[in-house]
Design brief:
359 residues, alpha+beta, Phosphorylase Kinase, domain 1, Transferase(Phosphotransferase), domain 1, two-stranded antiparallel sheet, globular, ATP binding, GSK-3, Kinase-like_dom_sf, nucleotide-binding, protein serine/threonine kinase activity
């Protein structure tokens, strides 16, 4: 017989409406930092008449300890993205709960369970040359990032481990908004640049930018774009200084105008001499040549435009999503490596959100 403690009447849906849930088969799935744990569990809603949702649903249950003096920003952002501004490539909050203690509070966030991350699938995609699946993931990633940009939300930790992929449908969703912040519509002023996992950290963060905006996420996305074809992270510095040197080696050093647009003040990492990379990302150009891309349409050129040192010049939004590199995804009846249709991941309605009504 199941214990009564498995029944919880203090959960709420994203709109704030109270619900009663039965939580069972709860097992630790992964640990996210020092204060967050992600469990997998089965839940079912118990209705007012005593009936219970059948069958139960497999979910991811994230529990985070937050000091009571702090506002739990992640919950506010997730509720906004789940109720007012949902998007197919952004994780959707199902339920949440807050439990108060003397000095802190524990938040429980419930999401649909997706077992695979892009970090886990990267090796498989690269080894099996799943070019269409890679292209599909990249397009969905930048579609989701463009949605966040329009809402003035910076994720600040875009990396393969935070991108969930449904292996059956090919659907990619951006998850883990624990580092995310709101960007006020008319200012990009923020304190603190110690964010974003090092391999995906934009140069303005490493240089201690006084201000930054959603283009920092675009840099991280560009690093992932390259990584999926390389089979490993593009910039693998052991520390911030070495990370910056690797970036300079491939892209050259920022000009004075670039530094102004990066809002960089005094920093020991700024080189005394400005130089330009002679042949940025040569290894990427060679990889795409082996994939039979013509020289004048080599996708490495697209990555170079995304990974511009100057945040204001980074290719993003519709100009990126409309690039001919992605045209293959929208050919009728296009089939992924695993046998599913591309439209299983990108429906016609979702295409209209990006391209307009004429799709």
């Amino acid at each position: 017989m199941e214990e009564a403690s498995n029944i919880h009447n203090n959960y709420k849906d994203p709109r704030g409406v109270g619900v009663t849930l039965r939580v069972k088969d709860k097992k630790l799935h992964t640990r996210d930092g020092n204060f967050s744990f992600v469990y997998r569990a089965n839940i079912s809603q118990i209705f007012e008449d005593g009936s219970e949702q059948q069958p139960s649903q497999l979910v991811a249950l994230k529990q985070t300890i937050v000091p009571r003096v702090r506002d739990f920003r992640e919950l506010h952002i997730l509720r906004c993205l789940s109720v007012r501004h949902p998007h197919p490539n952004i994780v959707k909050l199902m339920y949440y709960r807050r439990r108060k203690y003397s000095s802190d509070a524990t938040y429980s966030l419930v999401f649909e369970f997706v077992p695979a991350t892009l970090a886990q699938l990267r090796t498989e995609y690269h080894k099996n040359k799943n070019v269409l699946d890679i292209k599909l993931c990249i397009w969905q990633l930048f579609t989701g990032l463009d949605h966040l940009r329009k809402l003035h939300i910076i994720h600040r930790d875009i990396k393969p481990a935070n991108l969930l992929v449904n292996s059956t449908t090919g659907r990619l969703t951006i998850a883990d908004f624990g580092s995310a912040i709101y960007l006020a519509p008319y200012t990009d002023r923020f304190q603190g640049t110690y964010a974003v996992t090092r391999f995906y950290r934009p140069p303005e963060f490493i240089l201690g930018a006084a201000r930054y905006n959603c283009m920092s996420d675009i840099w991280s996305g560009g690093c992932i774009f390259a990584e999926l074809y390389l089979g490993e992270a593009l910039f693998q510095g052991n520390d911030a200084f070495w990370q910056l040197q690797l970036i300079y080696t491939k892209l050259g050093t920022p000009s004075i105008d670039d530094l102004k647009d990066m809002h960089v003040r005094e920093c020991d990492f700024i080189p005394a001499v400005v130089s330009q990379a002679v042949y940025p990302f040569r290894e990427l150009f060679l990889i795409f040549e082996k994939l039979k891309y013509p020289a004048d349409k080599n996708p490495a050129s697209l990555i170079v435009k995304i990974l511009d040192l100057n945040p204001k010049k980074r290719l993003n939004g519709r100009r990126l999503l409309f690039d001919e590199f992605f045209d293959e995804l929208f050919q009728p009846g296009k089939i992924r490596k695993g046998g599913g249709l591309v439209t299983d991941a990108i429906s016609l309605e979702e295409q209209k959100l990006v391209f307009g009504t004429e799709v």
